[in-house]
Prior knowledge:
Helix content is 45%, strand content 13%.
Amino acid sequence: MTPPxxxxxxxxxxxxxxxxxxxxxxMFASLRKRVVIVDIDPQANLTTAFLIEEKIEEIxxxxxxxxxxxxxxxxxxxxxxxxxxxxxxIATDLYLLPGDVSLSGYEDALSNEWPQSMGxxxxxxxxxxxxxxxxxxxxxxxxxxxxxxxxxxxxxxxAINRSVL
Length: 165
């Protein structure tokens, strides 16, 4: 059985979505619920709330496949497939799949797949791309036997958010 996914969305920024996820994550972990937090907002503010600047810089500069949500889905822009997520263990029962400012570039790939997915006889690749965030989240949750997944997304109705929701 897959764990529940709570995705926090509001079309307006600055309403407290990221702060709410941050505090809920700590609360669930303190209740001994294993939590996976996924930062799919290209601004990556949730990542900066959990990790120190030097660690974020190290993760972003290394560009190791699977080290961020973007590095997990990036292979889909070429001929590759979704990469296994590498999560950051924040505390007991608390895991983060970091966000990445490079994620905004993935928006174009997703935008192109929406119309193509309707007219293609082979729907495997378009559906793989459109459901890539869900697949990465489930891989991450399975890896640590998570009880819940908390997801932060940006304040817009772009292709990334449509795909996540």
